[in-house]
Amino acid sequence: MALAKGLGGGFPIGALVGFGAAAQLLQPGQHGSTYGGNPLATAVAGAVLAEIEDAGLVANAALRGAELRAAIAGMASPLVAELSGRGLLIGVVLTRPVAKEIVAAAQERGLIVNAAAESRVRLAPPLIIGDAEVAEFTEKFAAALAAVAASTPTGATA
Amino acid sequence: MNASTFTTRFRAAMMPTVPSPLAMLSHGKGARVWDVEGTEYLDFLGGIAVNALGHAHPVFTRAVSAQAERLAHISNYFASEPELALAERLTRLTGGDAVYFTNSGTEAIEAAVKLARRTGRPRILSLTGSFHGRTMGALSLTGKPVLQDPFRPLLPGSSRSRRPSRRSRRRWPTTSPPSWSSRSRARPVSSTCRTATSPPREN
């Protein structure tokens, strides 16, 4: 199992976890890293994971992810085809390849989202978000979707 | 600093691996970041799904500063308490048995590729449309021809399979990989699959 991304909460660190016999396949001298596992990176990752567990952030991700999905569905935008992902990693699958336009429209309104592909906007907010962030996202993302829907009529962006 | 200034500096000093940056950021707190001109943004990208605790979380900043004051780097000739404690935490959380630490996800995949080679089985399968990283071994598993084609030849033995349907799941056993393949790897949640038709911006 390969891990990285949120493991260090912003401090660069990754890990490979071996299961069963696979845990013993790499023998002394067969692989190595000067920096890998250094005290600074592992101390930070340990603190980040402890906070995720102690503060119940996995449960918060599930809760806020459901709220965001409901909010986006509630926008009833003609640009949104479906929602994918899990928890707070959300893919907004679009009916047209206007992800970059949506990202730009959102940024103009003070919201950073990401064009993972031409027809997909990716949301990956921190696991700590609460009511205020969900409400602000809802207002700004709805406005961005509306602006792009108004400026790119169906069929105009083939 | 205005937009044209940082864009000019970026183009002059940085290899052009990404388009012009969207903004020049200065600082953050929680789910918010500010650019160098003071504009505030709600950050729903989180450094591409990295900033689990948001920006400048006190747990993060305390951990960085406390460990930096004590012992930051020692090389892999030595062990440290934070290293062993994190390895133990990860085996507990994942149910795994042993951990190898890297500096990034793509390096974790590289380690997995070398580990897979040690099984003596030559093939490594990955999913069409998947993203596993940009270094040469990981890129060979990343199922996006647009990212791979400029860098062929890829790692010998690497090949792609379609996204698992009910039928192909039978061909992708999770408990006993086919003897020809060293292992099957599948990422259950992909944030970039399906609709990518141009090089996605990701790391």
Automatic annotation (TrEMBL), chain B:
InterPro entries on file: Aminotrans_3, Class-III_PLP-dep_AT, PyrdxlP-dep_Trfase, PyrdxlP-dep_Trfase_major, PyrdxlP-dep_Trfase_small
Polar residues bias locations: 192-203
Region annotation (Disordered) ranges: 149-203
Biased composition (Low complexity): 173-191
Swiss-Prot/TrEMBL cofactor(s): pyridoxal 5'-phosphate
Gene3D superfamilies on file: Aspartate Aminotransferase, domain 1, Type I PLP-dependent aspartate aminotransferase-like (Major domain)
Biased composition (Basic residues): 160-172
Pfam families for the chain: Aminotran_3
Keyword field contains Ubl conjugation: no
Alphabetical UniProt keywords: Aminotransferase, Pyridoxal phosphate, Transferase
The name this protein goes by in its record: Aminotransferase class III-fold pyridoxal phosphate-dependent enzyme
Species name: Pseudolysinimonas kribbensis
